[in-house]
Amino acid sequence: MVQREQWGTRMGFILAAVGSAVGLGNIWRFPYMVADNGGGIFFLVYLFALLTAGIPIMILEFGIGHKYRGGAPLSFAKMNRKFEWLGWSQVIVCFFIAVYYVVVIAWALSYFYHSFSLGYAGDPAGFFFGNVLGLTDGPFELGGIQTQLLIPLAIAWAVNFFAIYTGVKGGIERLAKILIPTLFIMVVIIALRGSTLPGSAAGLNFMFDPDFSRLFDFKVWTAAYGQIFFDLSICFAIMITYSSYLPKRSDITSNAFTTCLTNCGFSLLAGIAVFSILGHMAFTQGVAVNDVAGAGVGLAFVTFPAAIATLGSVAPLFGMLFFLALALAGITSLISINEAAIAALMDKLALDRKVVTVIYTAVAASCSLLIATGAGLYILDIVDHFTNNFGIVFGGLIQVLLVGWFFKLKSLQDHINSVSDIKAGSWWVFSIKIITPLVAGYTGIMTLISDIKVPYENYPQEALLVMGWLVLAVIVVGGFLVSRLKWKDKEVLLIEGVR
Ligand code: PHE
Ligand code: NA
Question: Which residues have C-beta atoms less than 6 Å from ligand 1?
C-alpha cells in the first residue's frame, strides 16, 4: 500500500476546490439565470439554496473524503458496501460531462484566438453556428469532425492531461495556484471596465432588479436548486475525491464555507462583467437590454461577442480577456471532473496514476471527438439536460438519503466537528436529512414528469432515447455492474479514516 497523495497547503486545496466550482456555469449560466428568474429575488432564493443544500452538502462531502480517504466509490464502499454503486454512477456522470465540457472549452479557446482580429464581430450568429460549429440540421446528422476545433481541443486535453499526470500536489494544485488568481484578476478588470461604460446601469438593473411577485414562483425555486449542484460541483464524486487528499488536520466546515462563498462571489462578479457590457451594447444600439440578452451558450458565444465589438479600440483586448477567462475557468473544472474518475479507477484497480491517466485520457478524448462534429451542439444539449436534471439531481438525492437515513450520520458529524472550528449542528443535520431530499426529490420528479409529457426542446424522440434516456440507463446500470467487480487490493477497504 502506498501512502495516499496529499495537498501541499490549505490554500492549495481551497484553490483547487474553487477551481472546480468556478467554471463555465458561473460565467454563462448564472448571469442569465438571475435575469430570467426574477433578478434580485432569484439571488435571494439562490442564497437560501446555498445555505440549505450547497454548503451542507459541501461539508458532507469534504467530511466523507477526509474521513474515508478514497475517491467516491471507495469512500462509499467503506461506509457501506451496498453504497459503492452510487460512487460509480457519479463517476460515470463525470465521464459524460467531461466529454462535452471539454468541447465548450475548445470553443472558448477558438474565440480567444479569433479575438485578435474580432473575426466574430461581423455576423456573430453565423460565425458561431457556421464557422465554429458547422452545425447540421439534426442530432443524427453528424456532418463530420470540425477540423477547426481540433487544435483548441488538443490544447484543452493536453493541459488537463499534464495537470493530472503530474499528480495532486505537483500538477493540480500547482496549476490552480496560478490559474485561479489570474482568473479573478481578469474578471475584475472586465467588470471594472464594464461597469464604467455608458448604459451599464441598465444592464445591471436588468440582471438584479427584484421582481417580488416571483418569490413564491415554483420555477424560480427549481432553477435555484437546479443550479446549485452543478455550480458547486457537488453530488458527483468531485469534492469527495479532492477532500480525500486533505491532510489529517484540516478544518472541514471553514474550508466548505470558503469554497462555496468564493464561488458565489465569482458568479456575482461575472454577472456584473457580462451584464454591464450587454447594457452598453443595448445603449449603443438604442434598444432595451431585454432585446439583446439571450440564454445559455448563445449568451457567451453569440450575444457577448457582439457586445465586445461595441467596445471600440479595446475590443480585441477585452475579447481575449473574456474568452481566456472562460477557458481557464473551464479547464480547472475539467481537471476536477477527470480526476474524480481517474482516482476512482486507481483505487479500484490498484494501478499507478500515470497508467490510468494515459488510458483514461485516450478514451475520453476520443469520445469528445463526437461532440466536435456538426451535430455536437445538439448532442451536448441533450446529454447536458439529462445528466444535470436527472443524473446529478437524483444522484444527489440518493446520496443524501443513503448517508442521512441509512447510515449513522452522527458518526460523520462527530468526525467533522472534531476537526472544525465552526460546528456542523442541527441546521446541518436538518438540511441533509429533510430539506435537500424534499426539494431535490420534488424538483427532480417535476422535471421528469414534464420531460415525459413534452420532449425536451422538441428533439426527435429517437435522439432523446439514445442521448438522454440511454445515457441515464448507462449511469445507473453501469454503476451497479462496476460495483460488482472485485477490488484489486482488498486492503484499501479496511483502512479506516485518518483517525
Ligand atoms: N462547477 C462548474 C461550473 O460551475 C461545473 C462543473 C461541473 C465542474 C461538474 C466540475 C464538475 O461550471
Ligand atoms: Na460554479
Answer: 20-21, 23-26, 97, 230-231, 233, 238, 333, 336-337
